[in-house]
Here is the input.
Amino acid sequence: MAKAKKGVVQTPLMKQYYSIKEKYPDAVLLFRVGDFYETFSDDAIKASEILGITLTRRANGAASYVELAGFPHHALDTYLPKLVRAGERVAVCDQLEDPKMTKTIVKRGVTELVTPGVAINDNILEHRENNFLASVHFDKKVAGVAFLDISTGEFLTSEGSFEYVEKLLTNFKPKEVLFEKGKRQIFEDAFGTKFYTYAYDDWAFAPDSAHDRLLKHFETNSLKGFGVHNLSYGITAAGAIMHYLDLTQHHKVQHIVSLGRIDEDKYVWLDKFTIRNLELFGSLNEGGKSLIDVIDRTISPMGSRMLKRWLALPLKDVKPIVDRLGVIEHFFKQPELKDIITEALHSIGDLERLVAKVAAGRITPRELLQLKTALYAIDPIKEGCLASDNEHLKYIGDQLNACITIRERIHGEIQSEPPVLISKGGVISEGVSEELDELRKIAFSGKDYLANMQQRLGEETDIPSIKIAFNNVFGYYIEVRNTHKDKVPEEWIRKQTLVSAERYITEELKDYEAKILGAEEKILGIETKLYNELVLAVSEFISAIQLNANLLAKIDVLTAFNTLSIDSKFVQPVIHDGLELDIKAGRHPVIEKQLPIGEEYVPNDVFLDNDKQQIIIITGPNMAGKSALLRQTALITLMAQIGCYVPAESASIGVVDKIFTRVGASDNISLGESTFMVEMNEAASILNNLTKRSLVLFDELGRGTSTYDGISIAWSIVEHIHNSKRASAKTLFATHYHELNEMEKTHKRCKNYNVSVKEVDNKVIFLRKLVPGGSNHSFGIHVARMAGMPKSVVKRANDILGELENSNRRGDLSKPIDDISNNREGMQLSFFQLDDPVLTQIRDEILNIDVNNLTPVEALNKLNEIKRWTGVK
Here is the structure.
C-alpha cells in the first residue's frame, strides 16, 4: 500500500490522494487530475510495467518526491482492460465537481472499482463467454455457491458438498471468487489455487445480513418466488455478492431481476476430471481443438454463451431434450423458417449486454441504435415461430416481445448516424425539442442569420457598406464607414472609433450574441438531458428485453445445431428413460474434423445395458484407437443430452445421470502427488458417486504402479462395479492388462472386446475397429519402431519380450532377466547383458568392424566415435 512519508509536508493534492488510497489499499488507484488519470508511488511503478507508460517523479512537499505515471483520460478504455487482465483491481477516482466552480482543491471520489469478476467494459469482456463473479460460503461439510455475470444480469445459486461446488466452479469458470477472510486455507484445500480469489469481510457472509441484502435488492418480502428459499448457504453466498457490488460502487443493477437455482437433480454430473479429459472447453494439447470449438455454429454472442452453459449442464429430463431435438428436426422440414431466423439473428447483436449497459446508464447512442435494430429484428422471428407447427417454437414466438413503443421512441429520438459519445453532440433528432431546434438554428445557422441582419439593417438605414463582425474584445459589432456615420440611428451604441470607420452595438445584436455564445453549451445540456430520459424509459423494458435475449439465444443454439448436423452428417438420437446405450457407427466429433483430407474416420458400434453387457473390457495395441472410442461414447451421450444431433448412424440413449472418466496419467507433481495417487483419487471419486444410470470410462487404470498391483486394483474395481446393486454403472474399461479378459468367464455382464489390428510382413496396420474377444498382444514394440527408435533398442526389446513370455509360460516370471539370459549365453557374466541400449549399440558396432582391413587412424577415429556415444568428454 502507498503511504505518505512521515515528517514530510505534503501538497493538498497528495493529501487527498493518500486519504482515498487508504480506503482501497489492494487496488491500483487511477486518480483524475485535469485531463489525465495519474497513478502514484507503488501503483505508478506497477502501472508503468503493465501498461508500458513512462515512470517519472514529481515533488511532494519539502525535500520529497513521489513516483508518477499517467495517461490521458480519454484513453481509459484502452488502459483499464490491460490492468484488469493482468489480475489487478482498479479503483477509478474521478473529479466530482467542475474545477471552475471551486476555489479550493477539487472534490474527488472513487466512482467504480473494477475487478476481473465485476466488469461491464467491452474491452475487458470476452464477447462469447460469460464473465462470472462467484462467491463461496463454507460450512463444515457443505458449501453454498453463487454466480453473477454483471454484464448480462444472470444470477444463480446452489449448495452441496465441496465436491459438487468444485464441479460448478469448474463448469462456470468464474473470473473471480469471493470467500470469507480467514478461510483461504479451507478454500485452497477444497478447490486448489487455480482461481483468482478475493478474501472479503466476514460480515458480508453473515446469513441474516446476506438474506436482507437480497430482499432489499429484489424489493420482496421473501425469496420463495425464486425457488431458492431453502438454500440457506447458497443465499448467504448470493447476498455476499450483492454486498461486494456495493463495495465496488456498482449501484445501478436493476437488470439483475432474479436469482435462479442450479438444481443438481436436473443436470448430468460432470466432474472436473471429465470436463478436462473429454476436452469440452479446452484441448489438452497445444493447438488442439475442443468440443465447443467444433460444435459452436452460433451467430450471436449470447447464443454462444448459452451453448457453453448447456454443455456444462446437460439435461437429465427426457421432455426438454426431446423438445430441443424436435425444433432441430423442424428446421429440416421448414428450411425457409431457419433462413428467416438466421438472417434476423445477424442483426440482433449482444442484446443481453446491451440491457446491462442500459441499467448501468452506460449505453452509448450507437449501442442504443443497435438495441432498436435488435428489437425490429424480433418481428420476423416471432412471426415465423408463431406460423410453425412446432409447439416449442410457437411457445417461443408467443413469448417474444418486440417492445414496439420503446423501439419507436428510440427510432424517433436518436439520429440515424449518431456519434459514439453523447458528449460529442448531434445525437437527438430534429423535432424532439423546440428549444433544442431553435438553439441549433442559432448555433449552426449563425452566418445566415447575421447576413440577413446585415442586409436588413443596410436597407433600413440606407447604409450600403454596413458590416457585422466579431472580435474577442467587443464580441459582435456593426461597422459603418465614416462617410455614412450621419445615417446611424440614435439607439445604436458606439463602442470604438477607427481612422475610417465607427463600430456600434445594438440591443438586438447583444441578445443574439448571448444566445449564440451559450447555445452550444445549452445544446449539449439539453441533448444529455433528453438522452438520459430516453435511457431511463428503456430501463422500464429491461425484464422484457432480457426474456427476449434468452429466447433468441435458445433459437440461435438450435438453428446452429441444425447447421452442424447438416455440415457434419449428424443424426437425431432417440432419448428415453431406459438403461440401454446403443450407438451404431459412432464417430468422435473432434477427431473426425481434424483428419487429413480424404481420410475417413472409422466408426464403431457400442452397446451397453445393465442386464447383459454392463462392462466392456477393451484390449488392443497402443495407437489403435481405444481412448478415442471411450471418449466418443461419452461425447455422443453428452451431445444427445444437451439436445444436439450426434455423429453416428443411429443412437438410442437411455439418459445417464453422471459421466465419469479416468483417462491418461495427469500428474500433479507440483502438489507432491504421483501419477498413481492422482489415478487413485480420481478412481475413488468415481466409485463413491456411482449410480445405475452412470456412464464410466476407465482408460489404462493402474499404469502408475507395478504390473501386479495395477492388475489387482483394476480387477477389484471392475468387480466392484459389476457386483454393486446400487452402483451397477455402464462401464468401458480400456486396458493393457490382458489378464482382465479372464473376468468374462466369472462375471456374466463383463464382455471382452478388442480394437483390431492386422499384422503384415512384421508390420502393424491399425484397423481401429471394435470386435468381440480379447487381445493378448499389445504391439508396443511395433509402435516403438514406427516412432523411429534405434534398431538396436527395438531388437533388444524383442529379445527381452521373448524371454519374459517364455518365463511367464513356465510360471517363472519372478526370475531376474540375468538368470533367464543364461539359457542363451551360458553362465559367464557379460556386460552386454545389461539392459543399456548404448552398450548394445557399441556391441553391434564392434561386431560389424572389419578388424583385418582397419588402418590405425580409422581405428582411433572409430574408438573416438564410440567414446562420444558413452557421453564421456
